[in-house]
Amino acid sequence: MPLTVRPISAEEHLRFVDRQSVDRQRAVSFLQTPAWARVKTEWRSESLGWFDGPTLVGAGLVLHRPVPKLKRYTLAYLPEGPAIDWSGDLAEWLDPLAAHLKAEGAFAIRLGPPVRTATWSAAQVKEGVASADVRRLSDLAPEHRDPAGARVVSQLRAAGWLAQSPEDGFGVGQPQYTYEIPLAGRTEADLLKGMNQLWRRNIKRAEKEGVEVTTGSDLEAFHDLYVHTAERDHFTPRPLAYFKTMVGAMSAEDPERIKLYFAHHEGDLVAATILVKVGAHAWYSYGASSTEKREVRGSNALQWAMIRDSLGAGCDVYDLRGITPTLSADDPHVGLIQFKAGTGGQAVEYAGEWDLPLRPVLYKAFDVYMKRRAR
Q1: Which among 182, 80, 187, 176 has a CA at the least distance from the CA of 122?
Q2: Residue with the larger pLDDT of the pair 125 and 374
Q3: Which residue, among 309, 249, 263, has the nearest Cα to 283 in the 3D structure?
Q4: Can you tell me the distance from the alpha carbon of 49 to that of 35, in angstroms, rounded to the nearest whole number?
Q5: Mean of the per-residue pLDDT values for the chain?
């Protein structure tokens, strides 16, 4: 019997996410939880389920983005999802999804398979940055290539899906490259040993300086420091209301889903971060730091606290989120991957985001609109 796709309730969706975690499949991103629909209030959202007869075997959160001036039609976006079996024949899963969404008025589907295609070790990243002949991760042979990820990419391309991953790995959606620290089967001593000398020294420096790390709920304090960080580092900050919605929605779904961490030195807030956890995967989601007292290394103290807490919670992965794949020493983005590589761990390439045009004329018009807006 072919799989069918139909809307499911947020409660059904959450039970599926929880079951994935218990079964140790653990492939569900926090962007594919019902709570994320309540965070992205500017998009219409729905939870969809894949059914094998009466049994729910897959789930996905769809965010519908309307076309300017044509609000009847939408781009149906499944960030870092859906949570399905990506190891077999994808047509069995994606064809009924396409049929359902087209009937609802979607002009295209965009999704991001949560499957890895390649990984590079911290040592490889370090050697690549030091080499004049290496400019990108792709210039290095990966430590590991994932054949399952390669099959996903091949099937999507053959089925007419269009790769959306830009040159630097960042686009309007989620990054294709991340930096992750494997935790399964490791101890705190193992994790410290895997870090470079600078990271270990900074962690010790924070401890020696008396940096105090706590968890709490003072979103205003976090946001004040976050806005300060945005002004210093020249990015546009999200409003306080966004974080209130995010923390409220995720905490209501699971009290352990999201936590705020604060680093104080002699009473002064010097750094703050947000950690998100679903099943065995923990994500460093947002961070902020003061310009003053950077020498006490509050940010390193917070990272180490979140890594240890993730390990203690039984997580398999601590995810430092997006990086660009550049390794060129003269590229302004190289500092990001160097900082994260200092933790040990590995650079990870995912399959990236893919579009399936359902109404080609509308899709082309939308693509032109987005390219003009990006100029």
Answers
A1: 182
A2: 125
A3: 309
A4: 16
A5: 93
Omega of the bond leading into 332 within 30 degrees of 0 (cis): no
From the CB of residue 295, how many other CB atoms can be counted at a distance below 10 Å?
Answer: 12
Give the tens place of pLDDT for each residue, 70-97. 778 999 999 999 999 999 999 999 999 9
The pLDDT of residue 284 = 97
Rounded to whole angstroms, how far apart are CA atoms 327 and 136? 5
Which amino acid is located at 369 in the chain? Y
What is 254-285 written as a DSSP string?
Answer: -TTSEEEEEEEETTEEEEEEEEEEETTEEEEE
pLDDT per position as a tens digit, 301-310: 999 999 999 9
**Amino acid 360: pLDDT:** 94
Contact between 120 and 137 (Cβ < 8 Å): yes
pLDDT at 25: 55
Q: Which residues contact 321 (CB under 8 A, 6 or more apart)?
A: 175, 178, 179, 283, 284, 285
The full length of the chain comes to 375
Using the CB atoms, write b or e for 77-102: b if 16+ within 10 Å.
bbbbbbbbebeeebeebbebbbebbb
Nearest alpha carbon to residue 35 among 269, 355, 299, 257: 257
8 A C-beta contact, residue 324 and residue 168: yes
Higher pLDDT, 333 or 303: 303
- pTM, entire model: 0.94
How much is the pLDDT for 374?
61
- The secondary structure of residue 291, as a DSSP letter, is S
List, in sequence order, the alpha helices (H) in 213-261. 219-233, 240-253
For the chain, which domains are there? 4-112+353-373 (3.40.630.30), 117-146+177-350 (3.40.630.30)
